Amino acid sequence: xxxxxxxxxxxxxxxxxxxxxxxxxxxxxxxxxxxxxxxxxxxxxxxxxxxxxxxxxxxxxxxxxxxxxxxxxxxxxxxxxxxxxxxxxxxxxxxxxxxxxxxxxxxxxxxxxxxxxxxxxxxxxxxxxxxxxxxxxxxxxxxxxxxxxxxxxxxxxxxxxxxxxxxxxxxxxxxxxxxxxxxxxxxxxxxxxxxxxxxxxxxxxxxxxxxxxxxxxxxxxxxxxxxxxxxxxxxxxxxxxxxxxxxxxxxxxxxxxxxxxxxxxxxxxxxxxxxxxxxxxxxxxxxxxxxxxxxxxxxxxxxxxxxxxxxxxxxxxxxxxxxxxxxxxxxxxxxxxxxxxxxxxxxxxxxxxxxxxxxxxxxxxxxxxxxxxxxxxxxxxxxxxxxxxxxxxxxxxxxxxxxxxxxxxxxxxxxxxxxxxxxxxxxxxxxxxxxxxxxx
Length: 440
Ligand code: ADP
Prior knowledge:
By secondary structure, this protein is of the alpha+beta class. It contains 13 helices and twelve strands. The chain has helices at about 1-30, 35-70, 85-115, 135-145, 160-170, 210-245, 255-285, 295-305, 310-315, 330-345, 380, 395-400, 405-415, and strands at about 120-125, 130-135, 175-180, 185-195, 200-210, 290-295, 315-320, 325-330, 355-360, 365-370, 420-425, 430-440. It has a five-stranded antiparallel beta sheet with strand order 2-1-5-4-3. A five-stranded mixed beta sheet has the order 7-9-10-12-11. A two-stranded antiparallel ribbon has the order 6-8. It is rod-shaped and about 165 Å long. The chain binds adenosine-5'-diphosphate. Adenosine-5'-diphosphate binds near residues 344, 345, 372 and 374.
């Protein structure tokens, strides 16, 4: 390369000199008669500049040709490039480094996308111009912006006050929060500023679907208020009667009646507390024993025996038509379930009626059904009878007893065994509650 440049300089100088001598040579030939001296000098100058430019362009192209032909992305390191060999090796090392870093970045991007796309929480990253840098698919779904694209202003994600003010707060350097309600869903928005050297360089937004949490919170509040009410009623009766005894104003003939009242209310209280304990254990999934092989038909027979007395008192016949049906489950929970269903079928039956407990093998399922010939459930109440403390007819329920928690326990017990529940009922004809267990 050095040689090439040196010979280019020598050759260009000779060309320039020769070009300058051409007009002089011509002038000598014509004995300086053809043009004046000044014109001769100007002509010599023009020709030497032209020769210089020509040589410059020609030689620079020649020198640059191998560099132009060089593939800088993949230089052939076996070839010698003369003086630029070092530069080529450096470029090659830089290329390798950039390639490594790029593939590392790509791998991280793929990992990040894989993680965020499977998240149920929405994530959005904004730059310092309030434009969208990145987001996951959950963010688009939760914020109701299926067509949003990178580079758009964050407002195109959602225009609600809650969202905009949370993000604006974050751009002001604070933690932003908002609660977004859209139809049936409730979302919680968190927006946090991203600071680099105390400068806000963007904002990260997290969107959480809190619908279920809100529902559970609402149910918990309702449950607490119902429990307080249900506990207060028998306690008030017991307290009132006890007060009469303490003040000595109970007639001897009324003692038995009042004592019976205290007994009944205490029994109701105990029943209620027991049901609450059972429900909370089902809620928390706390059980003394591990699931075992249990025969549902055996439990049906046991329940029939346990309820023989109340059934006889109401002149209700209990019929068990059960084939062997062994599932993996919890015996105490299954017993509680069949007991509650049969107890209801007796309580809400008519005098002289009947209750039938059937357990059948339906191929890939075992089906348990408890049917009665009782008062039935009006259609508008059927969807609600599994709710805690829900009773169709409060006054009638008080007369027959019960806590309003029996079917909630049945529902939880079915869920615990991954079984499905269904109800068929006709007023004044009867009710049938069916539980389908997968064979396992
Ligand atoms: P309860 O302790 O009041 O029986 P449950 O949760 O067991 O509470 O039942 C909820 C309500 O569903 C009952 O109050 C009753 O109105 C209705 N119900 C349950 N089972 C039957 C049935 N077999 N026949 C008619 N109504 C029923």
